[in-house]
Amino acid sequence: MSDQKLLDELINTLNLEKLEENLFRGQSEQTAWGRVFGGQVIGQALSATQETVDSSRKAHSLHAYFLRPGRIDMPILYDVQRIRDGKSFTTRTVNAIQNGEYIFNMSVSFKISEEGFEHQFEMPDVPGPENLKSDREFREEMKDSIPKEMLEGFLRDKPIEIRNVENLNPFANEKGEPFKNMWIKASGKLPDNHLIHQGVLAYASDMGLLGTSQRPHGVSFGAYHKLQVASLDHAMWFHREFRADEWLLYSLDSPSASNANGFNRGNIFTQDGKLVASAVQEGLIRQK
Q1: 230 occurs within a structural domain
Q2: Environment class of residue 201 by beta-carbon count within 10 Å: exposed (0-12), middle (13-18) or buried (19+)?
């Protein structure tokens, strides 16, 4: 399947069906592990809230909790509550529902654009994406070491292109520092619509975060049979304008792991060093 077709399918997945005022329905993409990808639910929930807000106001923050694993064999309903419409800020809460149960909850704050103070962290000094291997190329090179039951999912095409600065063997289970840098972008061209760019970046923001907290303990993707791993919560802030179909550096770190949880952070920069978004996630990394 072409990269652009993969991306068009993602855009279609994030584009929800309106059932009633404030009630929307979304379909799920197929995954190798049989449950809904967390980034998909984040992106769809953001899309649902955007449908209830004037397009002149842009999301500047979202705060979410993953409550239950989502099923890929049935639709997800998104029930939006209009909490507040103020002069500068608009607040929405959305619940994702499957089979009569809440699987996800998120609050989103929208804001008018205005001038103000400006400062930001500097972008890390890392190699650019041009001469780095794609994640797909790297995985193809090591496919002989991938368990057969995981091979198809491990090599699947994605609507987000990833180029890791530090290519780490996910089956080596080697200990390392709790830092990671990866270049990401949509696999094709996106429309000139900030709502779509925010939705695609929200989708991509769930990639790579939780694994950062596993690095110091030598329990990577290859230790799946030893761990119970799940995203617990997710927060994201949109700072500045960006395009999700241009290269963005996702610079990740994990300050702490405790109580069987891993805490992870990520800053997202454009190639010219502009900090455009930040994400934080805590996840379960429980030894079986």
Answers
A1: yes
A2: buried
Closest Cα partner for 65 from 92, 40, 42?
42
Q: Which residue has the tokens 């959305």?
A: 94
Q: Are 142 and 24 in contact (CB under 8 A)?
A: no
Predicted TM-score (pTM) of this structure = 0.94
Residue 274, in any domain of the structure? yes
What phi and psi values does residue 114 have, to the nearest 5 degrees? -155, 160
Residue 124 falls inside a structural domain: no
Range of the domain at 213: 3-113+131-287
Alpha-carbon torsion (6, 10, 11, 16), positive or negative: positive
Active site members:
206, 231, 281
Where are any strands of DSSP class E within 154-287?
160-164, 179-186, 227-238, 248-258, 261-270, 275-287
* Domain total of the chain: 1
Q: Tens of pLDDT along 228-253?
A: 889 999 999 999 999 999 999 999 99
